[in-house]
């Protein structure tokens, strides 16, 4: 399939400020997307509140707005620039949330802007934990036992059914902010209180703990023709319970036999299909019980993620760049694979003859910060 | 291992690698091939297609998941030797029952670690597959004499082209196969109630092929490579399967003859790997020896009818030459790596074949729809 000619200009939303726990992964993905789409002749409109990024350099986009990433501000930009399409998958959770807000408030419909890369329904399905769990159950993938709670009463009820330690995850927060692990009732109620406040939808997921399980991620790319490839598997040296951002991570995964790896591979592709990520990159996370191999699906990001940047560096496969091109209609077999200098198409699954290890550094940890790593950042 | 035993790998072109012995003591020779799969070393070592071949992995850490009782693709280890970059000190997998070195020693496989497998792979890619010799030095001495002896052994080893190895690895007698695919938590299943009887030619068959057939309701009778068409057809099968296997397909004249007669009888026929090459030869096409072949689990193959791209498992050193396909056969799949022919179909008979490994094990399981196609073919015949 050739690239789309019915769209001429595309709005890209950046990731805003770089927060603790992030490096400049989303600057990398956003900059790649700007370049890739301009190369294809599209007019690129960029909004990012962070001027200290490469992507906001004057020559990266056709028009650059350094403005707050709120749906009201982006609406004004849309009104003025009238892009035909919005690519929300390059600027992390910030961009995805903003795009959802724009859709919810009818802005996209009003100005006839099409979301490309991931549609509202797909983002909703992936981000809403209950919908996600149901969707995964439908394709036979097991999630941790859990339930939603909106009040203290509900919280305690759910907790009793999953036992301690208990994971608390507020819905729709960046990097799981406001959540935590509770080992007793006091901790549990404190975390729940904080979490409810942090969640824009005032909703918490209370979950069976998989602390100590093996943690894996799969970076998957899918095109319009339903070709799916795994760019890279990543295994966390630190088990579940330590945030990926705090973990030493290794690519490719090292402790799965082929049979187990293929189950995870098939599961991650099935996940993308079920969630409905039409084109682009996604990140799917799994936990495996080291004692018996029970595999749970933890979550998926229907966008370029921080791990995508690691996977891109690890394999040489430019996920954000390819994802941007897929979003305008190309298929993987039409794009050149840069690892082999264009000798093979991008519909190729990287295989590497080395092991990449990411070791986190925390230079800005203050004395008042917690000294233990947790899923909360 | 408390005490490291040094070992050598010497290629026929004179390249010398010094490393550590991690398997059985002694010496082994074979065609050195590289495999780019990042998982599945136990399946690969037990795949009969690797008979006479010394396998090296481009993946640097081999042995992380140990070995277990389930992940074997045949009754024993068939590879002639193993060459790796790094053996981990510990394995980490809940199914592991034996470490890789203990497994290698028990199966008598000579193996070497701590060598630059990237350099070795580059030599094989540039100069093509060639013979090599691994020798361990229990006395600790790897002097010029040892190098010279290993080089001589490498050069004296027979070339892969012209060798009929299917005859060497096939079963000695006919047997019935039971057991279907593996699943997490449940292990190997029993499969569906048999609806079809399949006669599977064993040219070095991987068990996962048989499991795929059983999974789909096939009662499988595995027969030796030299079974004649009349003997096979006398078993009254609903379909005939032609397995993967090692070596050069051309010298397997007995099989080519049998396959020609079976296909001509209108019997649904499905071939994989060597079986694909033999179907090609039986149909009148020619095969060629490739420079370093395809050995890996990430090969993109395009289905020419649907244009869909599949990531496939591959392991072959010979290929059917597309230019020589006769009028009654057509190309169905092509490699996006090098454009080589990956699948054919007879236009006048219910027969088709695939060069890669739809049974995976190891590798992606995307091509398993070919087994469904075979079943549909038998359904159609019986309808």
How are the SSEs ordered, and which strands pair?
The complex is a heterodimer of chains A (377) and B (383).
Chain A: E1 9-13, H1 25-39, E2 43-47, E3 63-65, H2 71-81, E4 85-87, H3 92-104, H4 107-111, E5 114-115, H5 120-127, H6 129-138, E6 146-149, H7 152-162, E7 166-170, E8 180-182, H8 185-198, E9 204-208, E10 214-222, E11 228-236, E12 249-251, H9 258-275, E13 280-288, E14 295-301, H10 306-315, H11 319-327, E15 356-358
Parallel strand pairs in A: 1-2, 1-4, 2-3, 4-5
Antiparallel strand pairs in A: 6-9, 7-8, 7-9, 10-11, 10-13, 11-12, 12-15, 13-14
Chain B: E1 5-11, E2 16-21, E3 27-35, H1 41-45, E4 53-57, E5 81-83, H2 100-106, E6 111-113, H3 117-127, E7 130-136, H4 144-156, H5 166-169, E8 175-177, E9 182-183, E10 187-188, E11 196-202, H6 207-215, E12 218-224, H7 229-234, E13 239-242, H8 253-264, E14 269-272, H9 274-282, E15 287-303, E16 309-320, E17 329-335, E18 341-346, E19 351-354, H10 369-382
Parallel strand pairs in B: 3-4, 4-5, 5-6, 11-12, 11-13, 13-14, 14-19
Antiparallel strand pairs in B: 1-2, 1-7, 2-6, 3-7, 8-12, 9-10, 15-16, 15-17, 17-18, 18-19
Helix pairs in contact in B: 8-9
Describe the 3D structure.
The complex is a heterodimer of chains A (377) and B (383). Chain A has eleven helices and 15 strands. By secondary structure, chain A is α/β, with parallel strands linked by helices. Chain A has a six-stranded antiparallel beta sheet with strand order 14-13-10-11-12-15, with helices on both faces. In chain A, strands 3-2-1-4-5 form a five-stranded parallel beta sheet, sandwiched between helices. In chain A, strands 6-9-7-8 form a four-stranded antiparallel beta sheet, with helices on one face. In chain A, β13 and β14 form a beta hairpin. In chain A, α1 packs across α11, α2 crosses α3 and α5 packs across α6. The termini of chain A are far apart. Chain B is α/β, with parallel strands linked by helices. Helix content of chain B is 23%, strand content 30%. Classes of the chains: A alpha/beta (377), B alpha/beta (383). At the A-B interface, α9 of A face α3 and β15 of B.
């Amino acid at each position: 399939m050739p690239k789309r000619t019915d769209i001429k200009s595309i709005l890209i939303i950046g990731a805003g400020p770089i927060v603790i726990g992030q490096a400049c992964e989303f600057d990398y993905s956003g900059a790649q997307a700007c370049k890739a789409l301009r190369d294809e002749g599209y007019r690129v409109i960029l909004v990012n509140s962070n001027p200290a990024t490469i992507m906001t350099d004057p020559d990266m986009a056709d028009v650059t707005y350094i403005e707050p990433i709120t749906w009201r501000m982006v609406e004004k930009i849309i009104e003025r620039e009238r892009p035909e399409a919005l690519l929300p998958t390059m600027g992390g959770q910030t961009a995805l949330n903003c795009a959802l807000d724009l859709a919810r408030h009818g802005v996209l419909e009003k100005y006839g802007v099409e979301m490309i890369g991931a549609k509202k329904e797909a983002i909703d399905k992936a981000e809403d934990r209950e919908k996600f769990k149901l969707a995964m159950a439908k394709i036979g993938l097991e999630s941790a036992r859990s339930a939603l709670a909106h009040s203290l009463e509900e919280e305690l009820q759910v907790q009793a059914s999953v036992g301690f330690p208990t994971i608390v995850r507020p819905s729709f927060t960046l990097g799981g902010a406001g959540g935590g692990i509770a080992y007793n009732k006091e901790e549990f109620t404190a975390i729940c209180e904080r979490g409810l406040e942090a969640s824009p939808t005032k909703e918490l997921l209370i979950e069976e703990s998989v602390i100590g399980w093996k943690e894996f991620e799969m970076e998957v790319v899918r095109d319009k023709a339903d070709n799916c490839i795994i760019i890279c598997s990543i295994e966390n040296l630190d088990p579940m319970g330590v945030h990926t951002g705090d973990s030493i991570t290794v690519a490719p995964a090292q402790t799965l036999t082929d049979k187990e790896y293929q189950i995870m591979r098939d599961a991650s592709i099935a996940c993308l299909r079920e969630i409905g990520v039409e084109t682009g990159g996604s990140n799917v996370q799994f936990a495996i019980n080291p004692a018996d191999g029970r595999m749970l699906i933890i979550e998926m990001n229907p966008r370029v993620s921080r791990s995508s940047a690691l996977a891109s560096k690890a394999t040489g496969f430019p996920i954000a760049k390819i994802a941007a091109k897929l979003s305008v209609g190309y298929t993987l077999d039409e794009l050149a694979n840069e690892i082999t200098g264009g000798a093979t198409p991008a519909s190729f699954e990287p295989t590497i003859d080395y092991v990449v290890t990411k070791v986190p550094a925390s230079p800005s940890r203050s004395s008042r910060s917690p000294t233990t790593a947790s899923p909360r950042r | 291992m408390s005490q490291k035993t040094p070992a050598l790998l010497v290629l026929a072109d004179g390249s010398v690698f010094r490393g550590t012995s991690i398997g059985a003591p002694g010496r082994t020779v074979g065609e050195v091939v590289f495999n780019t799969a990042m998982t599945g070393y136990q399946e690969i070592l037990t795949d009969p297609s690797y008979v006479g071949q010394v396998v090296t992995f481009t993946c640097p850490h081999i042995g992380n998941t140990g070995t277990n009782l389930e992940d074997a693709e045949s009754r024993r280890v068939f590879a002639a030797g193993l060459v790796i970059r790094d053996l981990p000190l510990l394995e980490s997998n809940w199914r592991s029952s034996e470490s890789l070195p203990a497994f290698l020693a028990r199966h008598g496989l000579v193996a070497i670690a701590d060598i630059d497998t990237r350099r070795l792979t580059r030599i094989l890619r540039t100069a093509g597959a060639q013979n090599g010799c691994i020798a361990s030095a229990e006395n600790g001495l790897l002097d010029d004499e040892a190098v010279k002896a290993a080089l001589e052994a490498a050069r004296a080893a027979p070339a892969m082209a012209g060798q009929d190895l299917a005859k060497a690895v096939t079963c000695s007698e006919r047997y019935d196969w039971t057991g279907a695919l593996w699943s997490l938590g449940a292990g190997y299943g029993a499969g569906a109630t048999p609806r079809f009887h399949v006669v599977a030619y064993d040219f070095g068959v991987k068990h996962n092929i048989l499991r795929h057939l059983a999974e789909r309701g096939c009662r499988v009778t595995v027969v030796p490579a030299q079974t004649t068409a009349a003997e096979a057809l006398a078993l009254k099968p609903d379909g005939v399967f032609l397995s993967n296997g090692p070596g050069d397909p051309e010298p397997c004249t007995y099989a080519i003859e049998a396959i020609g007669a079976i296909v001509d009888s209108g019997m649904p026929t499905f071939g994989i790997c060597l079986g694909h090459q033999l179907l090609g030869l039986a149909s009148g096409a020619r095969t060629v020896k490739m420079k370093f072949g395809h050995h890996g689990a990430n090969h993109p193959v395009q289905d020419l009818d649907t244009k869909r791209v599949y990531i496939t498992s591959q392991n072959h050193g010979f290929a059917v030459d597309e230019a020589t396909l006769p009028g009654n056969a057509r190309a169905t799949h092509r490699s996006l790596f090098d454009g080589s022919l990956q699948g054919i179909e007879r236009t006048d008979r219910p027969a088709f074949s695939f060069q890669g490994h739809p049974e995976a094990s190891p590798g992606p399981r995307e091509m398993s729809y070919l087994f469904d196609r075979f079943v549909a073919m038998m359904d159609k015949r019986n309808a």
